[in-house]
Amino acid sequence: MVIGEKARASLYLFSFVIRALYILLAMWDDFYAAQGWDGIIDSDSIKDLIPMA
């Protein structure tokens, strides 16, 4: 299957954006871990969101 140049360029751009977001998220997570915080969503709020039966 042959894709056009515009489709290929947009695919590369989409891939780059996804990788950049992933790297930023990893850096943000490392920053929060270095501060000793649980992060944006801590385990207590997850337990509140998902009630145990």
Quick description:
The chain is mainly α and 53 residues long. Helix content is 72%, strand content 0%.
Explain what this protein looks like in three dimensions:
With 53 residues, the protein is an all-alpha fold. The protein has one domain (5-49). The chain has two helices and no strands. The chain has helices at 5-35, 43-49. The longest helix has 31 residues, at 5-35. The radius of gyration is 19 Å and the shape is elongated.
Residue share in β-strands:
under 5%
Sheet with the most strands?
none
Number of domains: 1
Rg, Cα atoms, Å: 19 Å
Number of strands: 0
Contiguous uncertain segments of 5+ residues: none
Q: Name the average pLDDT.
A: 74
Mass-distribution shape = elongated
Distance between the termini: 50 Å
Helix and strand string, N-terminal first? HH
Helix content: over 70%
The secondary-structure class comes to mainly alpha
Alpha plus pi helix count = 2
